[in-house]
């Protein structure tokens, strides 16, 4: 059911495997990493060995004689859910440095905060990363824009035969994630408290982080709220978008913005089951903003990405630093985007090379000097070159 060919991601993996002894695919559980690894394995010219660390026997084998076991293998070695055995990273370092080595490692991880921490200490210079998101608009096609927005990019959610099946899968995913996946990382938190926090974040989607307010609602401390936030960010459930700081002589918003990364998960958490529910929901505009933001970051990567806001109300949904310039994005769920005072302030404050107002239509056109209306599906074709 989720065998859609994701050629851009596959090509990215191929290139990195040719350049590095180890490649890590990082993304949420059930986002399609295993399917991608199977597709890479199917075209691999040589032996392929897979260790799924979800299975106790695989974990036991790699705990008992990992050096001998991995050192004697040639070809492609796939290790799924690698964050379950972080001690492997120290072992992989000498294996990656073997002269005339005859193997390559493809590591699959669903907990970036732990995986990247350990890799940074042991595999620096030996590993490359590929971020695996849910399905993108470039993959499913612009004619599926509303379906992708409503259902989200998890393969089993997007490809579900009907809305009832989609909601059953999302319910099962959430329960498994909280009750099994989080404890599997060695994290001990109350499943009920984490689930309640996740639910509350859906109602704060697109807003600036306020640990005190959330903690008060949970009858917990701000430190606990921040810990839960970091846990959900590290397992790719939410995006924490940092603010842009610069000595502008203005009072700037200094807290990050919080988004549920998958729009389908957001809608499930908000009790939205169809487009009619979505169009009449108070979080309609915020939902589009998060969906369009995520698609833009899938297209152009999450590095050097910020939002901009001042205490007096001037805002910019997304600021990207690319090719030595600053590029702005506003995400508007409207049929006819217009220039606002806030856009003009951001354009001048940040000295943007260009500002795009991303909307759900099909026509790209200029709104003013250095400001254009841009259909969402066209963000994948932006090259960030000054005209």
General form? globular
From the alpha-carbon coordinates, what is the Rg to the nearest angstrom? 22 Å
Query: How many independent structural domains?
Result: 2
Instruction: Pick out the low-confidence regions.
Output: none
Number of β-strand runs: 14
Note the gap between the termini.
43 Å
Main pleated-sheet profile: 6 strands, mixed
Provide the β-strand percentage band. 15-25%
Tally of helical segments = 17
State mean pLDDT (0 to 100 scale).
Answer: 92
Structural class: alpha/beta
* Helix amount: 40-55%
Instruction: List the strand order in the largest sheet.
Output: 9-10-11-12-14-13
Write structural notes for this entry.
The structure is a single chain. By secondary structure, the protein is of the alpha/beta class. It folds into two domains: about 120 residues, Rossmann fold, CATH 3.40.50; about 240 residues, no CATH class. Helices cover about 45% and strands about 20% of the residues. The chain is built from 17 helices and 14 strands. The strands form three sheets. It has a six-stranded mixed sheet. Strand 13 and strand 14 form a beta hairpin. The two termini are about 45 Å apart.
Name some characteristics of this structure.
387 residues, alpha/beta, Rossmann fold, 2 domains, six-stranded mixed beta sheet, five-stranded parallel beta sheet, 44% helix, globular
Summary, kept brief:
This protein has helices at 7-19, 33-43, 56-64, 66-71, 88-96, 112-122, 137-140, 145-151, 155-158, 163-184, 191-203, 211-218, 222-234, 263-270, 275-279, 284-300, 341-349, and strands spanning 22-26, 48-52, 75-80, 103-109, 127-131, 207-208, 238-241, 257-260, 305-309, 315-322, 325-331, 354-359, 365-368, 371-375.
């Amino acid at each position: 059911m989720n065998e859609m060919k994701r050629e851009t991601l596959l090509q990215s993996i191929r290139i990195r495997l040719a350049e590095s002894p180890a490649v890590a695919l990082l993304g949420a559980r059930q986002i399609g990493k295993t399917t991608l690894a199977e597709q890479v394995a199917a075209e691999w010219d040589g032996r392929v060995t897979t260790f799924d660390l979800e299975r106790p026997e695989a974990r036991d084998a790699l705990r008992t004689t990992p050096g001998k076991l991995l050192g004697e293998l040639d070809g492609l070695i796939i290790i799924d859910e690698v964050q379950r055995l972080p001690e492997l990273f120290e072992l992989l370092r000498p294996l990656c440095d073997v002269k005339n080595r005859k193997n390559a490692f493809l590591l699959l991880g669903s907990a970036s905060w732990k995986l990247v921490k350990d890799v940074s200490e042991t595999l620096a210079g030996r590993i490359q990363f590929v971020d695996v998101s849910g399905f993108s608009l470039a993959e499913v096609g612009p004619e599926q824009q509303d379906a992708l927005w409503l259902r989200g990019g998890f393969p089993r959610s997007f490809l579900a035969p009907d809305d009832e099946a989609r909601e059953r899968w999302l319910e099962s995913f959430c329960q498994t994630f909280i009750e099994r996946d989080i404890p599997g990382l060695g994290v001990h938190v109350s499943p009920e408290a984490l689930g309640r926090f996740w639910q509350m974040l859906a109602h704060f989607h697109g807003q600036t982080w306020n640990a005190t307010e959330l903690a008060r609602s949970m009858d917990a401390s701000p430190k606990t709220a921040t810990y839960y936030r970091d846990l959900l960010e590290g397992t790719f459930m939410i995006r924490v978008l940092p603010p842009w700081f610069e000595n502008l002589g203005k009072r700037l918003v200094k807290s990050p913005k919080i988004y549920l990364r998958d729009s389908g998960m957001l809608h499930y958490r908000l009790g939205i089951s169809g487009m009619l529910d979505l169009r009449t929901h108070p979080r309609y505009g915020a939902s589009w903003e998060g969906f369009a933001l995520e698609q833009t970051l899938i297209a152009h990567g999450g590095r050097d990405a910020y939002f901009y806001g001042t205490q007096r109300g001037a805002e910019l949904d997304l600021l990207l630093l690319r090719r030595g310039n600053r590029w702005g994005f506003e995400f508007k769920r409207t049929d006819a985007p217009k220039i606002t005072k806030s856009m003009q302030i951001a354009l001048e404050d940040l000295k943007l090379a260009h500002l795009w107002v991303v909307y759900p239509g099909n026509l790209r056109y200029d709104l003013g000097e250095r400001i254009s209306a841009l259909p969402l599906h066209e963000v994948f074709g932006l090259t960030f070159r000054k005209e």
